[in-house]
Design a protein that fits this description.
- The chain has helices spanning 3-10, 14-22, 31-40, 45-49, 55-58, 62-68, 81-87, 91-101; strands at 71-74, 104-107, 116-119, 134-138, 148-152, 160-167, 170-174, 186-187, 193-202.
- By secondary structure, the protein is an alpha+beta fold.
- It folds into two domains: 1-52, 434 Repressor (Amino-terminal Domain), CATH 1.10.260; 53-202, Umud Fragment, subunit A, CATH 2.10.109.10.
- The strands form two sheets. Strands 3-4-9-5-6-7-8 form a seven-stranded antiparallel beta sheet, with no helix packed on it. The chain has a two-stranded antiparallel ribbon with strand order 1-2.
- Strand 5 (148-152) and strand 6 (160-167) form a beta hairpin.
- Helix 1 packs across helix 2.
Length: 206
């Protein structure tokens, strides 16, 4: 559906809808904008925001989702990332992981079967990615300079979310938050691993 058509149907200004559709994690739409959109699609505002499930969508089979151009991506705990990386290349193990351990979120972004989602739990990547923002990573997406990546440092137990800087064959990572000025740049060592490249962020507005 085009933004202009939704604007006509809901009487929400087109620029407002455009910002909602394309905005970063810091955007905060007003209830006066969200309510008519939710009503148009026969949803509650919490369902529109992803705070409550949409029953028919959550029960949809993979074939039905594929026809809609939607993919179900596992929403992992940070402690489960390496477990997912280990099993995600095997279809049967992937399916078992889905069933036994994790909730999932839906995305219209084209991602591989190995993609996964996390919920940001700190302020290191603000202002673009706030705490509570859901982010989707794809291990198979091409790594580029200035990409946002999930990294497993050999000397650290937990993975971290950072921006990647490539320079003359060297790899550096940095947080975005101005509060972490003294940690602005860190060079990646040979055994440090890039686990995935950011492909989408989902906002929790309210």
């Amino acid at each position: 559906m085009k933004v202009i058509d939704l604007a006509r149907a809901t009487n929400v200004p087109q620029p407002t809808l455009q910002r909602i559709a394309t905005g970063g994690c810091s955007r905060q739409p007003q209830m006066s904008s969200l309510l008519p959109i939710a009503q148009y699609f026969s949803l509650s505002v919490d369902q529109l925001l992803g705070k409550e499930p949409i029953p028919w969508l959550n029960q949809a089979h993979k074939k039905d989702l594929d026809e809609m151009g939607v993919r179900r991506v596992p929403l992992l705990e940070w402690s489960d990332i390496m477990n997912w990386i280990l099993v995600s290349k095997d279809a049967e193990k992937r399916e078992n992981f889905h069933k036994l351990r994790n909730p999932s979120i839906l995305t219209e972004t084209t991602v591989s079967e190995e993609a996964f989602a996390l919920t940001i739990k700190d302020a290191s990547m603000e202002p673009l990615f706030s705490s509570g923002c859901q982010v989707i990573f794809d291990p198979n997406k091409q790594i580029r300079d200035r990409s946002y990546v999930l990294v497993k440092l050999e000397q650290k137990e937990e993975s971290i979310f950072r921006q990647l800087i490539l320079d003359a064959g060297d790899r550096f990572i940095k947080p975005l938050s101005p509060d972490l000025e003294k940690f602005r740049m860190q060079m990646l060592e040979e055994n440090d691993m890039i686990l995935g490249v950011l492909v989408e962020s989902k906002n929790q507005y309210l």
